[in-house]
Amino acid sequence: MMTAGRTGLAIVVVLLFRNLNAAAAEKVAPPVRTFLNLSYKSGCKACLLDLALPAKQPGPLPVIVVIHGGGWIEGDKSSFTSDKLGVPGNVVDFARMGFAAATINYRMSREAPYPAALDDCRAAIRWLRAHAAEYELDAGRIGAYGNSAGGHLALLLALAEDPADRGKPIDQSSRVQAAASDSGPIDLGADYRRGTLRAVIDGFMGGPPAGDRAAQYERASPSHYVSSQGPPLLFIYGELDTQVGVETADRFVTALAEAGRKDVTYLRLAHVNHCPHSLQRVPFVKDAVDQFFVRTLRPH
């Protein structure tokens, strides 16, 4: 009885300290302003974003755009907006670090297949640049982070040329200056053949990689864009990923290195499944993501 009582007391004390620590952390957390459901593309009901800004820090602020996953068929920006969910990559957490952070909705593949989702993401980047003065944003320092399907789109924002950029002024570009992918598909053809994502890739691309569509699969794959030039990239992949083959990340990172790419960070995690950051929540990965954006987007 005495041992049980002491153990129970110890548990109560630990819980008490945890609650006190949580309350203290909540008191010192920097205040954040949020703007919800801002329309970034006319004529598109899905094209809304939530924006979080530090309440007291003057701009211009570097921007992180968070793109949700869900196989291009589901998901919502709200999963990265509330500061009570504890989801890594939360825009409120990024705002408390001194960034402006936006999380976006985009058209799902059941409504419109590729390149609709990418076009929407590009429109969101342009909208942020067009409204940089209004929200005190640094239009020249925008990064993208996404998990799963969102990671795929974040990489394409960093790698693929946007035909609409040609002839446009720089403040309307959809290019980002850094991108981080938490298990985003890299080679759509390889993942289609692997089979685990075949149905969602088929829906996203509007059919299998055959005939004329084979070339579109290439253009929609980050692995297609191997170059010595480009913004810093962060790859986070689990060795035991049952959806996205880690070998596709291995091959792409190797190809980038052989091409002479200078700023590529690859976290290849053993014994970890899909989305080590946002779903598996491997503790040290949050610091790696935070510091990646601090290093690549903040002025030095």
Question: What does the secondary structure layout of this molecule look like, with pairings?
Answer:
Blueprint: H1 2-28, E1 32-39, E2 48-54, E3 61-67, H2 91-96, E4 100-104, H3 116-130, H4 132-135, E5 137-147, H5 149-159, E6 178-182, H6 188-194, H7 198-205, H8 213-219, E7 233-238, H9 246-258, E8 264-269, H10 283-297
Parallel strand pairs: 3-4, 3-5, 5-6, 6-7, 7-8
Antiparallel strand pairs: 1-2, 2-4
Helix pairs in contact: 3-5, 6-7
Question: What distinguishing features does this structure have?
Answer:
300 residues; alpha/beta; Rossmann fold; eight-stranded mixed beta sheet; 10 helices; 38% helix; disordered N terminus
Q: Which percent range describes the beta-strand content?
A: 15-25%
Q: What is the CATH T-level topology?
A: Rossmann fold
Parts with pLDDT < 50 across at least 5 consecutive residues? 1-26
Second rung of CATH, namely the architecture:
3-Layer(aba) Sandwich
CATH class: Alpha Beta
CATH superfamily: Alpha/Beta hydrolase fold, catalytic domain
Average pLDDT number? 89
Question: What number of domains?
Answer: 1
Order of helices and strands: HEEEHEHHEHEHHHEHEH
Secondary structure category = alpha/beta
- Strand element count: 8
- Strand count, sense and closure of the main sheet? 8 strands, mixed
Overall form: globular
Level of helix content? 25-40%
Helical element count? 10
Radius of gyration of CA atoms, rounded to a whole number: 20 Å
- Going across the major beta sheet, what is the strand order? 1-2-4-3-5-6-7-8
Distance between the termini: 61 Å
